[in-house]
Amino acid sequence: MDVDPTPLAAAPVATFKPFAPLKPKFVAPPSTPEALLSTWTAENSNQGQIIKFLARWPPSRTSFDYGPWIVGNRGGWKNVPIPNIAGLQADFQALIAANNVSIDTVDQISKANNVMTGKWMVFQESGKIDILWGKILFYICTERQKGMAKVSTWKEGEKHVICVYVEDYTDTEAVNSLRKELRKLGVKWKIGFKPDAYTHLNIYKDNPWKIRPSRFNE
Fold this sequence. Notes:
CATH class of the largest domain: Alpha Beta
CATH architecture of the largest domain: 2-Layer Sandwich
Radius of gyration: 24 Å
CATH topology of the largest domain: RNA Cap, Translation Initiation Factor Eif4e
Distance between the termini: 73 Å
Number of helices: 6
Order of helices and strands: EHEHHEHEEHEHE
CATH superfamily of the largest domain: RNA Cap, Translation Initiation Factor Eif4e
Strand order of the largest sheet: 1-2-4-5-3-6-7
Number of strands: 7
């Protein structure tokens, strides 16, 4: 039997485009942007009220169009004077002009202008963020009974981030204590801690002063 030496033409390979991630079914929009900002006290920091707030504003189903953050503020900080952001930024420009930007000098102008708050930053996927945010909000309201935390709303292609605050980023005991509590809540992977002053001064990765944007990574 004669055999055609010419190989059969290869069958076309089917190509499939990856499916775009489906947008979640968003909760109803807020009547005002302030609805995403919650204030907690000894009177309303109970299981029923916290669950009600979490159910109304789950970060995985709250659109960025409603606002960038869902905030829980428990208050209770006694030693936080009004920050002078404009003064901080002006002093930073003076440091730049004098070629004197360093961790120590930024700390000095932060203290001089009362910009001492800082936060642990916890990144999490949308499918896991609601439970983690609930644990952290419960902790802030009922156990720690002071301070503030916020979580970013849903934005396509991005993870959520939860920021949990301390009143003085140079208070390493308070910073480390909060990190231990977050670990108990399930945050066992490495996370970064960033002073708010760094945010206000646009000190991010690959900055010209070679300052690490995260003060601690644990």
